[in-house]
Amino acid sequence: MGKNWYPIINEDTCIKCGKCIAFCKHGVYDKSKGNTPVVIAPVGCVDHCHGCGDICPTGSITYVGEDTGWIPPNAKADKESACSCGDDCACGDNSQSSENQNKLKGRDSIMQNSKNTTDCGCGTDCGCESTVTTVVQATKNLIIEWRHLDVDGETCERCYDTGENLAAEVKRLNRALNPQGINVKYNEVKLDEAQIHESNVILFNGVPIEDILDIEVSENYCGSCSALVGKDVSCRTIKYDGNQYDDVPAKAIRQAAYEVLGLNNVAPTKSGCCDSGSGCDCGDTQTTAKTMAIYEPSMCCSTGLCGVGVDPELLRISTVLDTLKKHGIEVKRYNLTSFPQEFVKSTVVNERLNDEGVEVLPITVVDGKIIITKRYPKNADFIKFLGIPASYLGEEEKPAASESCGCGCAGGCC
Q1: What is the spatial distance between Cα 322 and Cα 310, in angstroms, rounded to a whole number?
Q2: What is the DSSP string of 84-150?
Q3: Between these two residues, 290 and 231, which has the higher pLDDT value?
Q4: Which of 13, 216, 292, 308 gives 239 a disulfide partner, CB atoms 3.0 to 4.6 angstroms apart?
Q5: Using CA atoms, how far apart are residues 300 and 397, in angstroms rounded to an integer?
Q6: How far is CA 284 from CA 38, 366, 388, 398, 405, in A?
Q7: DSSP secondary structure of 31-98
Q8: Contact 143, 207 (CB under 8 A)
């Protein structure tokens, strides 16, 4: 049995058919919850067992620690002319929606093209016996298309930088999203001189990045392109996150991808003492919208305060969060037992768990960025990262610095 391998349920797509609960012979799921899958004993899961994931009719199960390239199976329409009802009803609806077919056909439907075996699908000597249905796999795709000038195999400097950013981000996105059944594909379209006005355009499933994010598009003289085509030309520039760019930065590519997929926004807007016009160049910025979430190990309840022998650290955290709530500040709190789907939704948390296992919990995330692992935030951490007065938590305010810190900004902003 492995503590770094266990299933996570995506509640947005789970149809609560109960197949995973009935399948598992290792007590991983809480059977008292009926057909609603709740992971209660992750340590009971067999290392690299995909049994419950293989039989899930909607592909709603992924695994912490997944490193085999396995992708959650999903339904495949078994009749090209079938309506979304899943019956030969002659209604004329030829939508061919496999997702709707799965949900409307009934929770006991098993996809065609399946194969029964007489082991649990663990691929290990776990000793259990069960029947597994191996289904045809289907995934959700994100297609990123990059259009740029190409002259005899050469492109301009700003397009080259965009290409480097894009290639790196596609790899990063696939690492994060493949375990969730999402594939990111990258298409490069080379343009000639007559199409130079389209150069350095990025489309996400056919939608330009400027239509997805708050981006302003303009043009300026491009010496590199001018040298390639032999005449003065202007090329695209963008204004994103308050800054002007000749290339498309990696954080914009990443944010647009997550926006299109409807996942967490991982590129928050920033401002701080180094904003344009502040006269400071120290690089110290802070997010304007402070949102904090704490991802915790499995616990018997939402706070871990039930029963005897209460952990004083858990008591402190609960007290702090209650105090902050009275001041209108809500810190989200998720534990593996009660909120496993939140560990799937947060890409940064999912990646860290895959890399380091459950020992990395608790994890504290502020504005989509991991700031603390393996311990709970101290009072000073709440004050610093939420930007709240120390008096909120009964702490004394520290006097502001009266002299410059030496970074070039006045008033000790650092």
Answers
A1: 17
A2: TTSS----------HHHHHHHH-TT---SS-EEESS-S-SS-------EEE-----EEEEEEEEEE-
A3: 231
A4: 216
A5: 37
A6: 42, 16, 17, 19, 12
A7: GGGTTS--B--GGGSPTT--HHHHH-TT--EEEET--S---------S-TT--TTSS----------H
A8: no
Specify whether the CB–CB gap between 109 and 102 falls below 8 A: yes
Per-residue model confidence as pLDDT tens digits over 33-50? 888 898 887 777 887 888
Domains and CATH numbers, the chain: 1-138 (3.30.70), 140-267 (no CATH), 287-393 (3.40.30.10)
Query: Strand, coil or helix: what is 22?
Result: helix
CA triplet 187, 160, 274: central angle to 5 degrees? 110
Rounded distance, CA 76 to CA 111, Å?
7
What's the chain's length in residues? 414
Q: Cα 242 to the chain's mean position, in Å?
A: 24
User: 236 with 199: CB under 8 angstroms?
Assistant: yes
3-state secondary structure of 236: strand
Between 91-105, 118-132, 288-302, the lowest mean confidence (pLDDT) is in 91-105
What is the C-alpha to C-alpha distance for residues 400 and 383, in angstroms, rounded to an integer? 15
pLDDT band, residue 128 (cuts 50/70/90): low
Both structure tokens of 409: 């900004």
pTM above 0.70, yes or no: no
At 386 the three-state DSSP class reads helix
Q: Which two tokens stand for residue 158?
A: 């700003």
In this structure, how many other beta carbons lie within 10 angstroms of the beta carbon of residue 210? 19
Q: Can you tell me the distance from the alpha carbon of 343 to that of 62, in angstroms, rounded to the nearest whole number?
A: 11
User: Collapsing DSSP states into helix, strand and coil, what is residue 385?
Assistant: helix
Residue 2 CA to residue 67 CA, distance in Å, equals 14
pLDDT confidence band for 396 (50 / 70 / 90): low
Rounded mean pLDDT of 365-384? 93
Cα distance from N-terminal residue to C-terminal residue, the chain = 49
How do strand 234-240 and strand 243-245 relate by DSSP bridges? antiparallel
Residue 6 token pair: 């266990």
